[in-house]
Amino acid sequence: MKLELRGITKRFGSLVANDHIDLVVEPGEIHCLLGENGAGKSTLMNVLYGLYQAEEGDILLDDSVQHFEGPGDAMRAGIGMVHQHFMLIPVFTVAENVMLGHEETKAGGRLNLDAARARVREISARFGFDVDPDALVGDLPVGIQQRVEIIKALSRDASVLVFDEPTAVLTPQETDELMTIMRQLKSEGTSIVFITHKLREVREVADRITVVRLGKIVGEASPTASNSELAALMVGRNVELTVHKEPARPGAASLVVEHLDVIDANGIKVVNDVSFEVHEGEILAIAGVQGNGQTELTEAILGIQPRTNGSISLNGTRLNGQSVKKVLNAGVGFVPEDRTHDGLVGEFTIAENLMLDRSDQQPFVKGGTLQLKALNDFAEEKKREFDIRAESITTHAGRLSGGNQQKVVLARELSRELKLFVASQPTRGIDVGSIEFVHKRMVETRDAGVPVIVVSTELDEVVALADRIAVMYRGSIVGIVPGDTPRDVLGLMMAGETGVAA
Amino acid sequence: MSDNNQQNTPAPGAAPEPAAASASASAPASASAPASSPAPQPAAAPAPKPDTEAPRSNKILNEILGGSFLISILAVLLALIAGAILIAATNEDVQTASGYFFSRPGDTLGAIWQAVSGAYSALFQGSVYNFRRDSFADGIKPLTETLTFATPLIAAGLGVGLAFRVGLFNIGGRGQMLIAAACAGWVGFSFQLPAPLHITLAVLAGIAGGAIWGGLVGFLKARTGAHEVILTIMLNYVAFYLISYMLRTPGLLQAPGSPNPKSPPMAETAVFPALFGSKYNLHLGFILVIVATALVWYLLNRSSLGFRFRAVGENPNAAKVAGIDVKNTYVYAMLFSGGLVGLAGVSQVLGTVTGGFSGGIDAGIGFDAITVALLGRSKPIGIFFAGILFGAFKAGGFSMQAAEGVPVDIVVVVQSLIVLFIAAPPLVRAIFFLPKPGGRARRVLPNVSKEVAAK
Ligand SMILES: Nc1ncnc2c1ncn2[C@@H]1O[C@H](COP(=O)(O)OP(=O)(O)OP(=O)(O)O)[C@@H](O)[C@H]1O
Ligand SMILES: [Mg+2]
Q1: Which residues 6+ apart lie within 8 Å of A44 measured at CB?
Q2: Mean pLDDT of B47-51
Q3: Ligand 1 atom closest to Cα of A36?
Q4: pLDDT-based confidence at B109, cuts 50/70/90?
Q5: In terms of domains, do B179 and B319 share one?
Q6: How far is the CA of B19 from the centre of ligand 2 (A)?
Q7: Number of helical H runs and strand E runs in chain B
Q8: Distance from A275 to chain B by nearest Cα, in Å?
Q9: Which domains are present in chain A?
Q10: In this predicted complex, what is the ipTM?
């Protein structure tokens, strides 16, 4: 189906998120939307999907004007969407989420869950996804939730499909699968809008590329353009796509993890006898497919996993068994993998979020009273430094674009006195310009002598940052290899092959 | 007369039957029934914004138009309109006139106008200013009555609202008030002390009693994971029967030599002084709730503890990851909440019903407070004015009944409708053709009981 957006304008208060945007997506075309964080990509797609009402402009499907009151209308008109901020119901199972909105019923109005389960299995199999249809969505890590969101959109046989940063937490293999599927759908005549910050993906599948900046279309790019050309178009300046870093000069072993087990709420050992060290001035990347225990490992370091065996110590003091507060006060900076769930208070302002983990410390609090002046100055400074795009520091974090939310979390954690920095998916959803900045900051942190742990499913990021790489598979560390290990070796290790690393 | 009718509103104060111990003992309490049903929906009062330079006027306008404030006002208006319909429908003159509506429609309309305007003007004259009195001093008396009724409502509303902001649903107002009243009352009647000291001690004892009764809920929730709604309901029963027992037992709270389950009167030195002389009932308690409102405002908006309260209320997971001890926060929040509700109990025994208290001393205020907190959107200033509005309904309701024969129940219906409309902003917007607020829907009700993921 042909999709056309004409003069779409969407305002939030005084902010113009979309400014007369025109976009045409032909049937059988993959149309990439590129743009900085906060450029207005998700907003545009949410208008298309009926979640927001545009102030001006029309949506046309096969040249007839549509009026969507809500997502239900958009869905009926044949539009499917993979949301950047997932629209899943945490207390429902995967199968229930997938069938939600077009439930099949058996006699007497009973839900036909078997059909939904079969559908989930069938689509998972096509992708090589490993998703249990009966798992509760709320219990799943973000990576798996992302897969559920994709499965949900694909199960509807939509003729216009919108993918809003679907690959932010997928592994390279999964991303490749997804792109194969996208090509297949395209050959069946589906129109696809694809939003991503990963230029490799853009160049691989895009038929046309439209670049959005500050709510306006600033031009088209050809799919044959180079990465740096695309990056420059996106952020309006030249971007260094590879981090410059000197070889690490590791000091003493600082974080020592010995025989760590983590047992989850269901009594399953999700981290199994893991031992490693991170030295001062070193970046250890933890690679692996989502759901192999990386999340739980980082959470154990922070002290939010209640059941652990073994020991975690930082510069000689034991961390596990301590309260989260003590761990943070010991100088641990932590970027959780799921920013909306664990990293931010959506109804708090940017400024308030920036003091979230220092809610009883100078300079933000004196004698139990908030120091609003100090907080505002600090927030203004961080907003500038981290280039957080928002109307003001009093904007609620929940209203920020995905990438800008991530920047708030990073700004908070990187502006404390650190003895250890643990970051899960630190650049999830942020644009190339900001990735450059964040990577630089992480390398600076390392060079200041802080041990850094980066958990990433993104091999590019792992390879760019790591001095050493630990690969996790099914809760164990398969091996720890040097930072320049070839990708195919890493790929094999991530699939659980132990023999490859000498 | 006034001292009497304030005592226990329409419900009989002395010796309620066991059945009457349940939530709906008194008429105002039943107003809380609709209040408790919409509440478990996920939602929350928007966090207050620290003021900074940003385009302020713009923001204030947005807040008023798009947000909560206008909806509150319109909800009150709608409820009054619905109340008017009820008044007209139940009025005998209107009923008679409508019998021959088609021959003389004017009669019906006239009767409706008579009934409604009469009732609402009685409501106004009973709660704000009585024009039938000659002197200003007499005319203004209803307003002071309103404020007297508002005093405990505001205090308890602040307590309930504070708990809402932390994501907790405190429906244990009854129990906390009873315990507070008993503590303050006991200090009030058993000691002989100089007045300022006696009052201070009695107030502190009452607040402490309420805080402990509330804190117990927080403690049990933090330790065992029990849900605060169940805990507070059960502790209401425990408090009621405990106090009833003590009131029936000579040597505990019962007045010596009296067969009634009632305490001795407060010592002169423990009674709140009247603010404007003995002619008016308004007492020191009102000053205390003004102070409490300011303190709660400071606590929530400017203190680091309040920051943690709000963080836990909005996203306990992120709070936990940020090193905030969520369980402790629940305990503190319930201590504060119980203490504030306790202040309502204190103001009852030391200010309003000083002649000794019975088991009905809470007069359903603990439940009305939920409504007040909802109407005030869990914000201190909002609660303050919501409390005054409800105080006015109480004060005016009686004179409406006395002057026009309109049943007091109408007032309860109006109160309930206000909450109903507030719980359904889209309904209000639809009725008044207001635009949808921009962006993601704002939550208007507190997000009670959002649990931390059990990890
Ligand atoms: N509900 C909302 N209320 C107010 N402002 C909003 C709302 N949603 C988005 N915005 C603002 O609109 C702008 C565009 O946001 P949008 O989410 O569309 O960006 P994006 O291009 O998807 O960015 P990203 O790559 O980071 O996901 C941002 O400045 C954001 O702060
Ligand atoms: Mg986006």
Answers
A1: A5, A8, A10, A18, A21, A23, A33, A212
A2: 35
A3: 25
A4: confident
A5: yes
A6: 57
A7: 20, 0
A8: 22
A9: 3-235 (3.40.50.300), 252-331+417-495 (3.40.50.300), 345-410 (no CATH)
A10: 0.85
